[in-house]
Each structure stands twice: as structure tokens, then as C-alpha cells.
Amino acid sequence: MSTPSPFDLTRSSKAVEELLTLCKRRGRVLVLMQDNPDPDALASAMALRDLLQAELGKPVVIAYGGVCGRAENRAMMDLLSIEAHRITHSKASRFATVLMVDTQPAAGNNLAMTDQLVDGVIDHHTKARKTAGASPAFQDIRAEYGATSTILYEYLLAAEHQPSDNLATALFYGIQSDTLDLGRETLPADVKAFQNLFDQADIRKLSRIRHAPLPADYFEMLHESLESCVVAGNTVISVIQNSRNPDIFAEIADLMLRLEGIRCSVCYGLYNETIHLSVRTVDARSNAAERVTRVVRGLGSGGGHRTLAGGQIPAGPAPENRLATVHARILQVFAPNQPPRPLFTGPARL
Ligand SMILES: [Mn+2]
Hints:
This protein has helices at 9-24, 39-56, 71-79, 89-92, 129-133, 148-159, 165-178, 188-200, 203-210, 216-227, 248-256, 288-296, 319-334; strands spanning 29-32, 60-64, 84-86, 97-101, 120-123, 138-141, 230-232, 235-242, 264-271, 274-281, 301-304, 308-314, 341-342. It is of the alpha/beta class. The strands form two sheets. It has a seven-stranded mixed sheet, with helices on both faces. A six-stranded parallel sheet has the order 3-2-1-4-5-6, covered by helices on one side. α2 runs parallel beside α6, α6 runs antiparallel to α7 (165-178) and α12 packs antiparallel against α13 (319-334). The protein is globular, with a radius of gyration of 20 Å.
């Protein structure tokens, strides 16, 4: 007896049909990602572009509002030929159709502060509160999925679109990185997509992406984050006062979650004029998204999943004070009544 398919192809066929109708109108199509796209976003955008281009026979542009800073992500774009452009809000608004992947209007991490710019959303994050009221014409939000790449993989299956080797590699890496090697918040659909894509993925390219050379800057920021590290209860908190790369917070939060005895990892700091906050937890009980919402309340925006979440807070005219407020809030929310102590208490240096 064959096992039932974990994919919801009925839902995905309907979604593809609706998307095609939406994009058939005259004018150009834009696929918009977060300001600082991660591998899941890059892979999803590429899949959507390839699918729409094949079906519609017109070019589709991929863009993001900020920077793509992480060495692995840049290598991914390079090696898998994902042509993604930096764009401004006014330029984005000149496209006839704007589709958003792996994020939502008003999530706070992208160019669209309202849904007016956006015609369609494909995402696996819980519905952003502000998006809930206003609604883009097309929405496929599956919060239970481990990666947006899995949703897009279903679209390809539903449309019988054979992915290129580069696209298969991108989707495989998107699922792998968003689910921490299938270790967090995954559905059978994520596992099956991962298995299917593995056969086609270019393992050598994948290895070059995952082990991309890291700039000295990375190690400098890592150093700062380690030096600033405090532990309060079972939460580890690290700070990078002035980051040169907005992706570093998530990277460090992931790394520090591996500290023995830790159940929750928070990394935050300033990038440009915004305080970024990244949270990882070992289990869903500590509800990272809900806690981030409490940290940013009245100051900024945030959200995500039960085991990984993030937020952004404008630093304002006095960034130092705002950073101190954020630090106090983090302690209050993640480790109430637990005095923080430095992670490193070794002998004083000479
Ligand atoms: Mn994602």
C-alpha cells in the first residue's frame, strides 16, 4: 500500500491558477522578499519567478529592500544564478503586480508597510496583526509549514513544472536552513520535499554555499557578541552594538542556542538606524514569537514562529537609551527575576 501524499496539491493547484490570473494582466511582475532575504526567501522567489516566467512568457523581477549580507546567501545567489535586485518602495510601486514571498506587508522587515503595494502573499509566518485587517488579493499563508520553499515546491508539482538543477538546489537549501536540517517545526510535506529535492540538488554547489568564505568583519562581530554575552536563567543574550550586517543577529542567535543548558537565545543590536532582535528557542513551549511581540510592544514590530522570531525597533534620536530599554525589556520578558551574569568568568586578562 502506498503512503498518502503529504502535499496539499488541490490547494496548490488552485493557488497557482489564481496567481496566474493575477499576473496575466498587462505590465511587469515583481517578486518582493524581506529587506534582508534569507535562503528560504531567495529559493521561494526563484521558484515563483521560474514558474511564472514559464507559464506567462514574460520576465519576472526578484527584489529586496535592504542588503543581502550573509556570506552563505551571497554565495547562494552567485552559484545558483538567482538574480535579485535592490529596490526602493517607489520603484517597486511601478510594477503592475507585486507578489511577496516569505514575509507579509506590515511584518516590519520589508518595503511594504501597508498591503497597498502588494497583490499577493505566499508565506509561512503567522499572520502579521496589521495584515489581518487589510488583505492583498491573493494570500496563501501556511503557518504550519517549516519553509515557504515547501509551499513553492508544491506549486511546481501542481503545475507540473520541472525545476532546473539550480532551483532544486535552492529549494533544498531553503528548507534545510529554515528548519535547521528538519530539526524544528516541520511537517511531513517539508520532509518529503526535502527528500525529493535531494536527488536533483547539486551537492557540490550546496557545500560551497554552506562553507562560503567569511569576511574578517564576521569574526569581529562574533567576537563582540561573545564578549557581551550574558546568561539569565536559561536564556543567553548577546549584543552587537553596531553591526555592519543585519543578518548577523539571527546567525549569532542560532549559534548561541547551542550553549549547554540554554533553552532560549536572544541576539540584538543596532544596524543603520534600527535595532534588530533575533530569538531562537529549543522548544515551542517558550513561544518566541509571542515573547518578541512583548519586547517590541509600542516600540516597533516583530513576529515569527514559536521557536524562531525577530523584531525591529527604530533607534530614534538616542540609540544608546533605546538599546538600554530593549535590554531591560528582554530581561523582563525572557528571564524575569533572574539576575544576568557574564558568560565568561575566567581569570582576568593581563
Ligand atoms: Mn522562511
